[in-house]
Amino acid sequence: MNFLPEILLAIFLVGGILATISWRKKKPDPDTIFFCLVWSCICLIFYFAGIEMLNGGYFFSLPLAYLAVFLWSYFRNKARLLNGVLFNILIFVFGFYLIYNVSITSSIVAFGLLGLALVLLAAVLIFGFVSLLIFLYWNALIVLRKESHSLANMLTLLLAIFLTIFLIYDFFIAQRLPEWLTMILAALPLMMGYFALVFFNFLSVSILYQFNHPKPNQDYIIVLGAGLLNGDTVSPLLAKRIDVAIKFYQHQIKVADKHAKILMSGGQGLDEKLPEGLAMANYAQAKGVAAADLLIEDKSTTTLENMQFSKKIMDQLQPLPYKVIFTSNNYHIFRAGIYAHQAGLKADGIGAKTALYYLPNAFLREYIAIVALYKKRHFIICGLIMALFIFLSVMSFFIG
């Protein structure tokens, strides 16, 4: 058996990864995992195309064409839920391609990737629900131990309780109900499955959105506000957003000798002694940012208003087109990107890191906000599902 393609793949893969790590170490945001994954995908594309062509096949052009569709949609507008759907379909398309590739080439690489995918899928199917419940309760305990006991910090606990109640209903109560009522309530698992699919797509696109690497040629950097401590002090969460903006600002001066304006966006809450934008600007000045490079937007109360009011300020200072990015916490930047698009801004976000224990709760909160943003669509789909099962229940009642 000829192992030359696999040997060449290993050489290019390992060599490229080592070169990528060395290259990214010199950058302010190394993100070596992302760039190593990109290089690995490029190597696999050439490997699979090469061995298939040697066997007289050209089926690899189909997943490549679909990859092109996904990339076109993603780079056209990164902040779209459609990108999550397209990416997950791409994964399935590639999975089917691996099956085809194994059948005609007997590639050990394709067989290994396919085997790994099947093992992961089996693990999810066998242990997924139980593992999810254990994880949610464990994470809820950590969050409640380290954060305030607000409703926003109890989302993982509430989800765990809901899934537990559903499990009890499914195993102990459903069999004792009348058949017509059971059939109506059978819509619930389908709705749950629908919202689970929506969450999966949201999570996929949110993770993809983390890999933004804006060029150091920006005119403006918008920092999205958050609440102040004691009404006048920048909180640790907000400080991380500002620090990310300052880091990019300093990097751009270093590599491009261009000063971006940092626009601090945040109004004054009822319990705050001064606008968030002003407190943020004071923090940035204390960190060494020149006052001439700071702008303040002090009227906004929501993320959408952050974007709308910031755009008005930038439009007054400089006619379009200007280059702009925004910073927030990593779990928030995808939804903020949607609002930027709604406000007419062609801007992508870079995220500040969040404590790992808080991410599940934070992403659940963002997911709920995304569902609320498109509530009409979800209401129609859930209404159709319920109508179908009510119809089936009525038919079953009369036929019975």
Describe what you observe in this structure.
InterPro entries: Cell_Envelope_Assoc, DUF218, Rossmann-like_a/b/a_fold. This is YdcF family protein. Helices cover 68% and strands 8% of the residues. It contains 14 helices and seven strands. It has helices at 4-24, 32-54, 61-76, 81-105, 108-146, 155-173, 179-185, 187-209, 236-256, 276-286, 303-317, 333-342, 359-373, 375-399; strands at residues 220-224, 228-229, 233-234, 261-265, 294-297, 324-329, 347-352. The protein has a five-stranded parallel sheet with strand order 5-4-1-6-7, with helices on both faces. The longest helix has 39 residues, at 108-146. The chain is globular and about 70 Å long. The model has no long low-confidence stretch (mean pLDDT 90).
Layout of secondary structure:
Elements: H1 4-24, H2 32-54, H3 61-76, H4 81-105, H5 108-146, H6 155-173, H7 179-185, H8 187-209, E1 220-224, E2 228-229, E3 233-234, H9 236-256, E4 261-265, H10 276-286, E5 294-297, H11 303-317, E6 324-329, H12 333-342, E7 347-352, H13 359-373, H14 375-399
Parallel strand pairs: 1-4, 1-6, 4-5, 6-7
Antiparallel strand pairs: 2-3
Helix pairs in contact: 1-2, 3-4, 4-5, 4-8, 5-6, 7-14, 8-14, 11-12
